[in-house]
């Protein structure tokens, strides 16, 4: 089950957190994986070693040329997981112009342009798997993550539209929406016991998830077992969106 032998994959933002675990899971199931980071670094090298690959690709997703740069490094892939994102915690009217642009560029525009760049290869092959990583904040109205939630909700709309347009080519496009997860992004705030209790109390299952919690959903959506699923979303949040 979930045999990815002979498949190539790119996971953006795979130098840490959810992306690193997703990339490792794909590799362990037979895929040849490109690890991605913003720039060459020891952190990316270490992540690639953890994932089990010697292939890396670098591009700053704030940059309008990121999609073309990535494709020039990886060539066509069978599996594309768009995990990288940026968030700033501010009151809804407290974002700087740069912070607004960065979130839209990285979380939404890069998704559009990267999919657009990689789709022709998948269509020509008659098969492809695209998975975007959304957020429980598509549903919850976090007082300091309005723009982040907006970009993730808009990304889901892209998923639905592109999935409908590409289904006849054997390409599936889906979204996974994580809830509160232990990642480097959240490590500082979740180290506060009072805050952690507040978060745990907001989750019906009662605890913050591990970064590996997305792996099962991703393996399903990226494998032959998930070939009849497209334009859909799997929410992995312990019930936090309810």
What would you say this structure looks like, in words?
Helix content is 42%, strand content 15%. It is of the alpha/beta class. The protein has a single domain (8-181, 210-236), classed as NAD(P)-binding Rossmann-like Domain (Rossmann fold, 3-Layer(aba) Sandwich). Strands 3-2-1-4-5-6-7 form a 7-stranded parallel beta sheet, sandwiched between helices. Helix 1 (17-28) packs parallel to helix 2 (42-51), helix 3 packs parallel to helix 4 and helix 4 packs parallel to helix 5.
Mean pLDDT: 96
At CATH level 2, the architecture is 3-Layer(aba) Sandwich
| Total count of strands | 7
The CATH class is Alpha Beta
Query: Which range best describes the helical content: under 10%, 10-25%, 25-40%, 40-55%, 55-70% or over 70%?
Result: 40-55%
Summed up, the domain count is 1
Q: N-to-C terminal Cα separation, in Å? A: 31 Å
Which strand order do you get reading across the main beta sheet? 3-2-1-4-5-6-7
**What percentage of amino acids are in beta strands?**
5-15%
């Amino acid at each position: 089950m979930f045999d990815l032998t002979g498949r190539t994959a790119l996971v953006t933002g795979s130098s840490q957190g959810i992306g690193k675990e997703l990339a490792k899971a794909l590799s362990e199931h037979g895929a040849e994986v490109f690890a991605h980071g913003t720039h060459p670094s020891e952190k990316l090298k270490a992540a690639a070693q953890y994932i089990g690959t010697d292939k890396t690709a670098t591009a700053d997703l704030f940059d309008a040329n990121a999609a073309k740069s990535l494709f020039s490094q990886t060539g066509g892939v069978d599996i594309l997981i768009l995990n990288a994102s940026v968030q700033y915690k501010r009151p809804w009217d407290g974002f700087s112009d740069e912070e607004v642009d960065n979130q839209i560029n990285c979380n939404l525009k890069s998704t559009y342009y990267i999919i657009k760049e990689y789709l022709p290869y998948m269509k020509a092959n008659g098969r492809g798997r695209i998975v975007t990583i959304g957020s429980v904040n598509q549903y919850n109205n976090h007082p300091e993550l309005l723009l982040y939630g907006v970009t993730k909700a808009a990304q889901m709309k892209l998923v639905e539209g592109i999935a409908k347009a590409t289904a006849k080519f054997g390409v599936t496009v889906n979204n996974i929406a994580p809830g509160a997860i232990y990642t480097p992004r959240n490590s500082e705030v979740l180290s506060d016991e009072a805050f952690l209790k507040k978060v745990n109390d907001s989750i019906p299952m009662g605890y913050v998830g591990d970064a590996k919690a997305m792996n099962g959903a991703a393996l399903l959506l990226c494998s032959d077992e998930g070939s009849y699923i497209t334009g859909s979303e799997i929410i992995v949040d312990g019930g936090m969106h309810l």
